[in-house]
């Protein structure tokens, strides 16, 4: 079994248990392998220094401990197992969920002159197979096990520890915060052509012809269409989705990785395991299905730590497209509605929504999301009358045993004569959609799903709390900006923040600069 132990490379012999278990910093004290570790970092991996937690993790792995690592995308998880694997004799076994990730790793290791090869037996879905990995600890109890992931709630951590038979382990949890990412939600125009112009302009502004980016779309057809439209607007683009021949997909991927095309347009299937460090923007053409998905998809930007942009184009009309996909999943609608709340709010910090989702304490956003950066005041516009009128329309339709989609409801209501019709001109179509969405999020409306031979449709019905509005006991409000064209302001805000970061400063330094700037402005306002 000494033979099999060595397959995993990380021998337990010669392990040095820390003298006291007084927390992470203990893993930074001197170790006998320090010099070797430093040499490998510099000469083999070519890295100027360690990043947060890397050294502690390496020390605890080399000490023979089981380790649980949560580190955001781009944090540098690979080094945490690659370096100990090189330092110790024997073989390290790396278990990875995706073929593209595995290929990437093997290629990267070989390029450094580290011998590596791959076994690819996984089934269609890696999750059930992962359940069998508990056998590793039973078979090789003295070989340290390292679990690395970008995100895991407390609950998932406990499940994984149980599944892998590692009840006790050292934990290293980094914040989910990605301080170099600027998050923005922009209005998605209903006119497809105008929408494409917006995207093309944004890309030109971020970096004409060079800065690499990803656009996420809802459907395969959209991917192809958008790629063509971008090319027509002078932007090099390729598309990537599950309906393509593997070679064709590989070609698109390679052209993008090697900067032959600037933009790759993909469904969410694209990107799991994408290891391109210099992605400067991730644009969402359609909302994600949850805050978690959005965090992961948008997080493919800026893995090299340089300032990068995450721009989500939001339109309420995209909600039923997503909800009819996710409604059958446990918590599918709940998660989607959290995502919609994230998009609807003109006030709430977008980073805060991410911290909240992962159960992490809120940290300062430093103006790196458009809600935090926007100086325009937001007011709560009372839309109770509109809400009531809309609910009456739904009530009437339901009474006739008919069904209505969100878009039909908005159309019907805008066309209605009489009381509610008189209210309608005040609100644009988009505003009306936002009111309907607000009603859905608050439980005054609910979604119901109907199936045809070809699709699942989402319809609206009165929600459990609708009576309170119809009876006049509740108010409904919508957050709206006071004055100013949103998009013009947005362009400048993002540019200012990112230019500051682009000037070679770290995220932390730009924070200091922008704080000083705020202070200067406040003082100027107070003292003339
Ligand atoms: P993760 O797996 O956590 O997403 P990776 O291990 O792929 O991250 O590393 C992301 C990028 O950061 C890679 O380009 C890697 O070379 C780089 N990197 C890792 N550690 C360091 C470090 N200590 N200093 C500088 N760059 C690093
Ligand atoms: Zn913010």
Automatic annotation (TrEMBL):
Residues 198-344 form the Helicase C-terminal domain. One of its GO terms (biological process) is double-strand break repair via homologous recombination. Its main location: nucleus. The keyword Nucleus applies. Residues 4-25 are annotated as: Disordered. The keyword Isomerase applies. It catalyses: Couples ATP hydrolysis with the unwinding of duplex DNA by translocating in the 3'-5' direction; ATP + H2O = ADP + phosphate + H(+). It comes from the Eukaryota. Coiled coil: none annotated. Its cofactor is Mg(2+). It is found in: Nucleus. Belongs to the helicase family. RecQ subfamily. This is ATP-dependent DNA helicase. The lineage of its organism: Eukaryota, Viridiplantae, Streptophyta, Charophyceae, Charales.
């Amino acid at each position: 079994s000494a033979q099999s132990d060595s397959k995993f490379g990380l021998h337990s012999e010669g392990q040095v248990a820390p003298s006291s278990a007084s927390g992470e910093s203990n893993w930074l004290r001197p170790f006998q392998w320090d010099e070797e570790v430093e040499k490998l970092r510099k000469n083999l991996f070519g890295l100027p220094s360690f990043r947060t937690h890397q050294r502690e993790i390496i020390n605890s792995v080399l000490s023979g401990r089981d380790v649980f690592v949560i580190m955001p995308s781009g944090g540098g998880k690979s080094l945490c197992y690659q370096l100990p694997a090189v330092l110790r004799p024997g073989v390290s076994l790396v278990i990875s969920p995706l073929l593209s990730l595995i290929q990437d790793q093997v290629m990267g290791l070989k390029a450094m002159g580290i011998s590596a090869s791959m076994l690819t037996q996984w089934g269609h879905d890696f999750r059930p197979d992962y359940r069998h990995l508990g056998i590793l600890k039973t078979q090789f109890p003295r070989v340290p096990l390292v679990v690395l992931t970008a995100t895991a709630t407390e609950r998932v951590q406990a499940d994984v520890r149980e599944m892998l038979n590692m009840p006790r382990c050292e934990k290293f949890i980094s914040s989910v915060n990605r301080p170099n990412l600027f998050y923005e939600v922009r209005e998605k125009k209903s006119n497809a052509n105008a929408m494409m112009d917006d995207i093309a302009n944004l890309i030109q502004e971020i970096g004409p012809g060079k800065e690499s980016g990803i656009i996420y779309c809802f459907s395969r057809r959209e991917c192809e269409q958008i790629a063509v439209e971008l090319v027509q607007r002078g932007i090099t683009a390729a598309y990537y989705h599950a309906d393509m021949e593997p070679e064709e997909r590989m070609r698109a991927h390679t052209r993008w990785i090697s900067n032959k095309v600037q933009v790759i347009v993909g469904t969410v299937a694209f990107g799991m395991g994408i290891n391109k460090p210099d992605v400067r923007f991730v644009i969402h053409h359609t909302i994600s299905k949850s805050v978690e998905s959005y965090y992961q998809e948008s997080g493919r930007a800026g893995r090299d730590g340089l300032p990068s942009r995450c721009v989500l184009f939001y339109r309420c009309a995209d909600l039923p497209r997503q909800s009819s996909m996710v409604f059958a999943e446990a918590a599918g609608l709940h998660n989607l509605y959290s995502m919609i709340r994230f998009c609807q709010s003109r006030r709430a910090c977008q980073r805060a929504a991410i911290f909240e989702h992962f159960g992490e304490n809120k940290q300062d956003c430093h103006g790196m999301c458009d809600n935090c950066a926007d100086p325009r005041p937001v007011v709560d516009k009372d839309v109770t009358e509109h809400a009531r009128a809309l609910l009456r329309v739904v009530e009437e339709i339901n009474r006739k045993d008919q069904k209505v989609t969100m878009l039909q409801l908005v159309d019907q209501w805008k066309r209605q004569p009489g009381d509610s019709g008189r209210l309608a001109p005040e609100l644009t179509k988009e505003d009306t959609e936002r009111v309907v969405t607000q009603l859905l999020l608050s439980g005054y409306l609910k979604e119901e799903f109907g199936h045809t031979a070809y699709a699942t449709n989402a319809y609206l019905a009165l929600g459990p709390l609708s009576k309170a509005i119809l009876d006049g006991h509740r108010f409904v409000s919508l957050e709206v900006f006071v004055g100013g064209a949103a998009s013009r302001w947005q362009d400048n805000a993002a540019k200012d923040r990112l230019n500051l970061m682009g000037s070679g400063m770290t995220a932390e330094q730009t924070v200091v600069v922008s704080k000083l700037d705020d202070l200067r402005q406040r003082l100027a306002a107070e003292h003339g």
